[in-house]
Predict the structure.
Amino acid sequence: MINDHENLANLAKTIKINDKKGNKFRVFFYSECESTMDLAWVLLEKNILKEWDSIIADKQTRGKGQHNREWISAKGNLYGSIILPNIEELSARWQSFIPLTCGYVITQTLKLFGIDSKLKWPNDIIIGNRKIGGILIEKKNKTIVGVGLNFTTYPSDEKLRDEFSLKATSIVKEGFNLYIEEFWIKFILLLKNFFYNIIYTNNEEEENEFIKLINSKFLFINQKVKVFINKDDVKKGFFKGISNDGGIIISGDSEEIIYSGRLVPDINNLTFK
């Protein structure tokens, strides 16, 4: 296990990839680490990782999910972290869309392999009605995106947090066989393309079009939901999609825009589509 911060880059298998414009980025492959996100920060601070460089590991011993929850990280799945370019240059709208952008690009990467997937706000990747993975964004002086996808194994139903949690699945369980390295490289290439051809244009029409695209990928869109802001604050209404500034629109007795929380279906009105 990697726990020594000296010569970390030398412990990885590294490949260099050229995008369509001839720009290079590197992928560092580790058999095991505590957390790809934590390791990415260390290598970034040592000036080893640059923009668009990334780390993937076959196993994590201290994987992180949303709100510092444990991310079960058994061997055989994808655990990756990628360094984004400077997002401070983006419009405020695009900055707020970064987590959803990464989720959307994951769905488009899966589509390349014939896999139809959805997004569950704020950060889950769904196949059918089961969770296949999630996204974690951390921002300091740079922005790092963490991705976890179940390729071969997945948590059992007994390990779900509560009755609102979607059951898990894996790519293999759903009848597909993908190579992790191939998927990860295609994901980075698509994400780079999305950044430079759409996001960096700072074009309002592109922003509006993205809202339509992301709304088409949401699970429970136009259905009755609950949003847990905290244990004492629960909003109820119909999930109408994302707002112009990256929140979600919940339409009940009145219309509200919510920026953080946990969205779950109203069980009595649950359908998957």
